[in-house]
Amino acid sequence: MLERPKRPNDLSAFWMPFTANRQFKQAPRMLVSAKDMHYTTDDGRKLLDGTAGLWCVNAGHCRPKITEAIRHQAGELDYAPAFQMGHPIVFEFASRLVDIAPEGMDHVFFTNSGSESVETALKIALAYHRAKGDGSRTRLIGRERGYHGVNFGGISVGGIVNNRKMFGTLLAGVDHLPHTYLPGKNAFSRGVPEHGVELADELERIVALHDASTIAAVIVEPVAGSAGVILPPKGYLKRLREICDKHGILLIFDEVITGFGRLGTPFAADYFGVVPDIMTTAKGITNGVIPMGAVFVKKEIHDAFMNGPEHMIEFFHGYTYSGNPIACAAGLATLETYREEGLLTRGEELGQHWEDALHSLKGEPHVIDIRNIGLVGAIEMEPIQGQPTKRAFSAFLKGFEKGLLIRTTGDIIALSPPLIITKGQIDEIVDHVREILRSID
Ligand code: PXG
């Protein structure tokens, strides 16, 4: 086996994503191996993974079943096209996904990432209306502070200004709902906050402005992750569903983070009892191990495409790696691991302990809000005056130094550990965070 050095001697060629490259390369932080709940750094230290990588390693790291499935598939059928061809495992995987999907979502389109799932979902929404003879429905409605990946459709419907402002005028015909972040009313809510259901009614205003006949779809994260864990107020998603139904608008849930057990249910749709028309996923679909995404659609949407001459391609869309066999093998082994260990509902069992542990941080230095749902948590800190994000970055560095991996966005610490976490490890995360909060400026 090829042994690679743990510290490469030239860091310049790799232009790192979403990273302060120059700063990083002066003081690199390197992860060289991982097992279950921990990473190991190049200087041999263990880091407790408080973020499941980037919200994706839901079953924990280097799980034998998944590793073995990948190894086996790579030796048997490494790559096969999915355009006008098939291979057994992709059909098998789609069926197993539909088995755990919310009621009625019984077709799956494969992609390679969350961003591609979003683009695919938006295109399906537009093409669906056109296929039904309703081609004037071209507008897409996103939400302020939404994150839907980094491709053009996703940043257009997304609402994070730094991800949008450098890239021109984006997609035309997009409008945005207001975000649901109401710290004045909802700070330190345990679970779903009480206030703000009326924010869903803003959709009626947008409909009144543009007319329903021009609107194709609304896309929201059931729980906004990247913007710093913003929860939907009680009743909000149900209200959105009702307004969409009333006006013939498709509802897309972006479940790239919330999918595969993050909230203690297989999907957020299950948690909130609201089924969207289209659902985007990625990340936990393969435990983050092989890049993959999937878009789930209701039968009615899929079937609207299945007309015209049978020799014609129904949907002019797809990726070279849609349904890649090794990704499917990883995905099937991931689903088996989730099932054997009850991971898709483990967040529910641990949810109360997680909530109590997190909220014990109330009153610690800098803390202005704490939010939680399933196995997701956020600790919001007061920014240092005139230097937003600086305090959070210090917290991140301190965690890295002391043995805890956290994720920060703005001045918010976001936590989303692997779903295999124990109660003891939850306490360990919170003890670490307490120590971090007490030790930073
Ligand atoms: N939709 C949602 C809701 C996401 O959270 C994407 C789409 C895009 O997925 P890809 O696979 O193209 O990255 C995401 C990704 C963070 C963080 O720390 C979140 C994501 C990615 C990286 C970091 O908040 N979410």
TrEMBL record:
GO biological-process terms attached to the record: biotin biosynthetic process
Domain of life: Bacteria
InterPro entries with a match to the protein in the record: Aminotrans_3, Aminotrans_3_PPA_site, PyrdxlP-dep_Trfase, PyrdxlP-dep_Trfase_major, PyrdxlP-dep_Trfase_small
Record SUPFAM superfamilies: PLP-dependent transferases
Molecular function GO labels: adenosylmethionine-8-amino-7-oxononanoate transaminase activity; pyridoxal phosphate binding
EC number: 2.6.1.-
Cofactor section: pyridoxal 5'-phosphate
Gene3D superfamilies, per database record: Aspartate Aminotransferase, domain 1 (3.90.1150.10), Type I PLP-dependent aspartate aminotransferase-like (Major domain) (3.40.640.10)
Keywords for this protein: Aminotransferase, Pyridoxal phosphate, Transferase
PANTHER family for the chain: ADENOSYLMETHIONINE-8-AMINO-7-OXONONANOATE AMINOTRANSFERASE, BETA-ALANINE--PYRUVATE AMINOTRANSFERASE
Homology family: Belongs to the class-III pyridoxal-phosphate-dependent aminotransferase family.
Protein name: Aminotransferase
